[in-house]
Amino acid sequence: MTNHQPQKVALVTGAAKRVGAAIARRLHREGFAIAIHYRASKTDASALVESLNAIRAQSAAAFQADLLKTEMLGALVESVTARFGRIDVLVNNASTFYGGTLASVDETAWHELIGSNLKAPLFLSKACAPRLQASGGCIVNITDIHAERPMSNYVVYNVAKAGLRGLTHALACDLAPTIRVNAVAPGPIHWPDDDQIDATEKSRILEHVPLKREGGVDQIAEAVKYLVCDATYVTGQTINVDGGRSVAI
Ligand SMILES: NC(=O)c1ccc[n+]([C@@H]2O[C@H](COP(=O)([O-])OP(=O)(O)OC[C@H]3O[C@@H](n4cnc5c(N)ncnc54)[C@H](OP(=O)(O)O)[C@@H]3O)[C@@H](O)[C@H]2O)c1
Known about the structure:
Blueprint: E1 9-12, H1 18-29, E2 33-38, H2 42-55, E3 60-64, H3 73-84, E4 89-92, H4 107-135, E5 138-142, H5 155-174, E6 180-186, H6 199-207, H7 217-230, E7 238-241
Parallel strand pairs: 1-2, 1-4, 2-3, 4-5, 5-6, 6-7
Helix pairs in contact: 1-7, 3-4, 4-5
């Protein structure tokens, strides 16, 4: 992007750390101003804003919101627009992730897992759509390879990501021809910070990955950059970034 063009703006949810932060840094390198959404990770979000603004002044800002509060999502989008003047890209990355069997599933799991992984992307897309229409922008949803082939004992999470995959298809049709909508489906990219996947389970998972290793967060960021910046004739598609896991037996 050259200096005389207005700075394009990407809103990345759950961007304070891990995959979201890598996406934010990658799009920033392409010249985007970044709206870094966070819920609880204020310190990480502030540090990321500071590091991006040190590279280009006024090119990043942080926005706090609990995405389960659907009534606040319009205000989040308005705050980003008030700060940067436009929105060109929405990356629905934020996610709550935990397991549960059919026997243990309850309303809380439904609320948190469907709320963060499916409902918030839907209502954020709705709130951003007029801005994306004006800018000819795009949406990238971060799904999961388990949207297609479910992971045992993660019933509601699997369903939420399958819904997000379906939302990607539906919005790609409904928002065309102006707004492209695609998805990136990670496999084992970066283990959760908590201990819900133990060492034995990690080894078992990697056994089924043809490339035999974790991908790393930058692999997702590269796929997002491709869909946002390069894939101008691509909509309604998902790129699996999974070391081959989705095609292995
Ligand atoms: N990591 C992997 O290997 C992997 C594999 C498959 C799919 N994915 C997908 O890739 C994306 C990024 O993965 P990740 O591991 O980096 O994610 P993560 O660390 O588990 O979560 C990303 C962020 O989501 C935010 N978040 C969660 N619930 C929220 C809510 N109710 N409201 C607002 N923000 C909320 C949190 O923000 P705060 O910290 O600010 O609270 C968190 O930092 C996710 O969509 C995930 O499902 C990742």
